[in-house]
Amino acid sequence: MNLEATSTNNNKPQRLADFETLVEALDYAATGVTGCNFYDARGKLQAVLPYSELHVRAQKSARRLLQLGLQRGDHVALIADTEPEFIVLFFACRYAGLIPFAVPVSVNLGSHEVYVRQIRGLLDGGQAVAALASVDFIRFVEEAAEGLPPLKWLGTPEQLANVAESDIAFQPNQPDEPAYLQFTSGSTRFPQGVVITEKAVMSNLQGIVRTGLELRPGDRSASWLPFYHDMGLVGFVLGPIVSQLSVDYLRTRDFAIRPIQWLRLISRNRCSIAFSPPFGLALCARRVRSADLEELDLSSWRVAGIGAEMIRPDVLDNFAKALAPAGFNPHAYLPCYGLAEASLAVSFSRLDQGLDVMCVDAKAMAERGVAVRVQAESRKVNEFVNCGRALPGHSINIVDDNGIELPDLRVGRVVMKGPSLMAGYLNNPQATSEVLMPEGWLDTGDLGYVFEGDLYLTGRRKDIIIVNGRNIRAQDMEALAEEQPEVRMGDASAFEVADSNGHQTVVLVVECRISDTTERQSLIVRLQRLVYESFGIHCLVEVAPLHTLPRTSSGKLSRAAAREGFMERADWNQATTAEAGLG
Amino acid sequence: MTVKYDEILDRLGLHLQQVAGTKLEFDEDTNLIEGLGLDSYKVLDLMLEVEDEFDISVPMNLLTDVHTVRDLAQLIEQLKPAQ
Fold first, then answer.
1. Which of A121, A123, A291, A326 minimizes the number of CB atoms within 10 Å of its CB?
2. Residue A302 Cα to chain centre, angstroms
3. Which ranges of A324-415 would DSSP assign to H, the alpha helix?
4. Number of domains in chain B
């Protein structure tokens, strides 16, 4: 059978997120001819899901979920592989008044055990009442569900299709009700579920599609971003639906192996909107060959959104240079800033302006926390990227540790408020009150400064390591180390360091008594493997003597102090990125 | 006729040498991450070469049980269609 992708042009007037709820948005999108298209690793169209069909299938599945006895407000875990069933089930949950949450798919070699533990943590932490996974992933979920209180239902979409359809009428969703949960890290021990209401996500989508992207008829999206990531889910599943755009999907894993397929999709289908964290652009630039350039025409790509991790200008410059012969327009770059606690987006830079970099004096920045503008040629500079202004109805402020607002160009905590904010962390009032402050301000955990109303991010205060757009909690890496027989509780510290070229390296320092070189080396390679299996990253492991790691008076480890100590020992400011472990 | 396991192992060995970037000693029991020091980028390079070399598509749900060179060679054998 020859599949045909959904068209870019719709036969209904475009409405830009002027809906009360997600299902209302889908009800409208279903009246047109646009939809989602799924491509395989070789760029072949594998499945097409017009919104009209999504609408029908989601409602059928919703009636089946209700037939299983699930109650309004119950949480449902969906293994989020890039395929039509995920979107069908996500909307099935919303039609049935259930609250879905996306569970990652694993892509790491040898990660079976860790992956099962991660799913178990999410089922448990997310209080899942039911879970659905494709045949490829169901066995992991079955393993994960062992030892947990029994789920009301666990199965594949095919099994769900055998359930009779309930005749219970759908109840309308309310704007203040939770729409879904978003987990902020792949944490096995401390999964943190962000509760996003219908109103929050629709406010955010409105800001994104109207102000951030200025979507218009003729736009089309392409995405390889995982559906369990906020940028993938909100930006490229919900975003296209609330604006009735057609979207072309590639699996994350297929992109990672053959990034050129993403560029081919954009070129072939004349896509105009495609986002990536910087590392995705680096993958493309690394792989693209001159023969590829001849067949690519990227001139339709008007918004190349960049976000999800600190933006390094050189990565963007490299990509732009490599793809210039294919018609890539560097003015398409749209740096933006967001976080799951704000549904997705907080600020966008200006469309059609490209990258706007401010060079500041590195010494004044490090010693006084002040951004002093200097010429790029002078020797010690930091480059920070303009991430633009808050979405309409939202505000960004820079405050000091006492919550006092700081003037322009002074580095401080980035706080924000507005209708897109989460309702809180699921069942965690303490964590919620740590970030949601009086008068509705959210402490983002990021550091930055404002200049002439635009936000510049300089780093993170929270102990979250961001690698390749993924959030990794430092304490999760430390917990891995503490599980080793050689390492005692509290004797590990994880953090990231940047060398003079801005290259980030993740470092894990463990204290232990072992003096035997072979045993130390065995611990190092084991930890590197475990970190890889759990988080998919390579890290540098330092095995240090006891009492190396600095502690506070209460005995708690300070990661910032541990980082400083490490940099001193390794003479990191002089160093270029080291590949292997010290020790 | 299907490709024999030994042949797969030989052909895989060449790619492992290339991707790991050094003349490392390894055998069927060598752990890919621990023994060959493959980082996430190198794993992607390896998957690309393996898929192109053997003309297969490796489903990611099966990679979770691949630890050693042998695991990978057996997975390729399992995925390789008859020639």
1. A291
2. 22
3. 362-368
4. 1
Do A159 and A28 share a domain, yes or no? Answer: yes
Search chain B and give the residue with CA nearest A107: B60
CATH number at residue A525: 3.30.300.30
Taking residue B6's Cβ as centre, other Cβ atoms within 10 Å add up to: 9
Contact B39 A115 (CB under 8 A): no
Same domain assignment for residues A425 and A515: no
Residue B41's domain comprises 5-79
CB nearest B33 (choices: A40, A109, A283): A109
In angstroms, the CA A494 to CA A510 distance is 9
Tell whether A530 is covered by a domain. Answer: yes
In chain A, which residue's Cα lies nearest the Cα of B49?
A: A257
The residue in chain A having the minimum alpha-carbon distance to the alpha carbon of residue B39 is A538
Where among A438, A460, A482 does a domain terminate?
A460
| Nearest chain A alpha carbon to B66 | A110
Interchain proximity B66–A110, CB inside 8 Å = yes
Query: Which CATH number belongs to the domain containing residue A381 in this structure?
Result: 2.30.38.10
Subunit contact A109:B57, Cβ cutoff 8 A: no
Asked, for residue A126, whether it belongs to a domain, the answer is yes
How far is the alpha carbon of B74 from chain A, nearest alpha carbon, in Å? 14
**pLDDT of chain A along its 583 residues, tens only?**
679 999 999 999 999 999 999 999 999 999 999 999 999 998 999 999 999 999 999 999 999 999 999 999 999 999 999 999 999 999 999 999 999 999 999 878 888 988 998 899 999 999 999 999 999 999 999 999 998 999 999 999 999 999 999 999 999 999 999 999 999 864 555 678 999 999 999 999 999 999 999 999 999 999 999 999 999 999 999 999 999 999 999 999 999 999 999 999 999 999 999 999 988 999 999 888 888 899 999 999 999 999 887 788 989 999 999 999 999 999 999 999 999 999 999 999 999 999 999 999 888 887 788 999 987 666 678 889 999 999 999 999 999 988 999 999 999 999 999 999 999 999 999 989 989 988 899 999 889 999 999 999 987 776 778 777 777 778 788 888 988 888 887 789 999 888 766 678 899 999 888 888 888 899 999 999 888 888 888 899 999 888 888 776 556 677 878 888 888 888 776 544 333 333 3
**Euclidean distance between CA atoms A212 and A204, whole angstroms:** 10
Which of the residues A114, A134, A142, A257 would you substitute to probe the B interface, choosing the one with the greatest number of B C-beta atoms within 10 Å? A257
Prediction ipTM score: 0.89
CB of B47 within 8 Å of any CB in chain A? Answer: yes
State which residues form the domain around A236: 22-178+226-250
Q: How far apart are CA A388 and CA A335, in angstroms?
A: 8
Residue A109 in contact with partner chain B when CB distance is under 8 A? yes
Whether residue A563 sits in one domain with residue A497? yes
Number of other CB atoms surrounding residue A251 within 10 Å: 22
* Number of residues written out for chain B: 83
Q: Is residue A35 within 8 Å of A6, Cβ to Cβ?
A: yes
Q: How many structural domains are present in chain A?
A: 3
- Kindly state whether residue A269 falls inside one of the protein's structural domains: no
Q: Is A390 helix (H, G, I), strand (E, B) or coil?
A: strand
Task: Report if residue A302 sits inside a domain.
Answer: no
- Shortest distance between the Cα of A109 and any Cα of chain B, in A, equals 5
pTM (predicted TM-score): 0.87
Cross-chain Cβ contact A111/B39 below 8 Å: no
B37 contact A CB<8A: yes
Supply the CATH number for residue B39's domain.
Answer: 1.10.1200.10
